[in-house]
Design a protein that fits this description.
The chain has 258 residues and is of the alpha+beta class. Helices cover 22% and strands 40% of the residues. It has helices at residues 2-14, 18-35, 44-53, 117-131, and strands at residues 55-62, 74-77, 82-86, 91-99, 102-105, 109-110, 135-138, 144-147, 153-159, 177-185, 188-197, 200-207, 210-217, 223-227, 230-235, 238-243, 253-257. The chain crosses the membrane at residues 25-48.
Length: 258
């Protein structure tokens, strides 16, 4: 210890004011080091991760048990710390916290519509599973894998393709009336959007893996639409969905407004 003190004294003698000079150099050197850190390096992983997740994702599997056929569950990351989506029956919204490859969902607010038991049960399981997510990764197939804190896969999601807009000009029509209605059809939810412009009546129908645009045709009662292989026939708050590929005598899928 004595030798160290003597060496320090010799150093200060050789360089008068050396201690004061050293104290002044330390903050200056820190400033030089920080000046060489590339802009954007701090927090860059978070920004890159947010960009990779932004958009809508379709749930394909929950805990290795698959999902109910034709029930559309989605998660949409907006890129600003917020999230929304559908549990198959009800819409939800909330916040997420992400740092690098870690991901945590906050409390989610949901609507309270009633759907068939199988759909409701899966939705509750899905929302509970989201609360257990702790990390994320995109695999070689472009699928989003959400994992728990032990690395176990909880959810597998596929990116939803961006939709394209179609414009149809209807002559001599003052306005277009648009009405959106959700239907519970067995174990699936069908989203219907009706477009009425004068004598032109169309409906777009969407559910998991399907999108159909159908035109109004003559019917003895109610409103009947035909598009592709499907017939959509509404009567009040109910509707029947016919799949023509199943034969003329096949029973339709009965639907009720939610």
């Amino acid at each position: 210890m004595h030798a160290i003190v003597r060496n320090e004294e010799l150093f200060q003698t050789a360089l008068p004011g050396g201690r004061l000079l050293r104290k002044r150099l330390i903050p200056a050197l820190i400033g030089v080091v920080l000046a060489f850190i590339p802009a954007g390096s701090v927090g860059g992983a978070l920004a890159a991760g947010a960009d990779a997740l932004v958009g809508e994702w379709l749930v394909e599997d929950i805990g290795g048990g698959g999902v109910v056929d034709r029930v559309r569950m989605t998660v949409t990351f907006t890129g600003d710390g917020k999230v929304n989506g559908s549990g198959g029956c009800n819409r939800f919204t909330g916040k997420v916290k992400m740092t690098g490859d870690t991901l945590r969902f906050g409390l989610l607010a949901t609507m309270r519509m009633a759907c068939p038991p199988a759909v409701m049960g899966q939705e509750q399981k899905f929302l509970r599973t989201l609360q257990g997510v702790r990390s994320w990764a995109v695999d070689s197939d472009g699928k989003l894998v959400l994992r728990d804190d032990g690395g176990k896969p909880l959810l597998l999601l596929a990116r939803v393709r961006q939709s394209a807009a179609i414009t149809i000009e209807v002559p001599s029509t003052a306005a277009v009336r648009t009405v959106k209605v959700d239907y519970a059809c067995g174990d699936r939810i069908v989203d219907a959007t009706y477009f009425n412009a004068g004598e032109v009546s169309l409906v777009s129908l969407s559910w998991t893996g399907e999108f159909v645009v159908a035109a109004n045709v003559l019917a003895a009662s109610g409103a009947k639409y035909a598009g592709g292989r499907y017939i959509w026939w509404t009567k009040g708050k109910t509707a029947d969905l016919y799949d023509l590929t199943k034969g003329e005598n096949a029973e339709p899928l009965a639907c009720t407004q939610t």
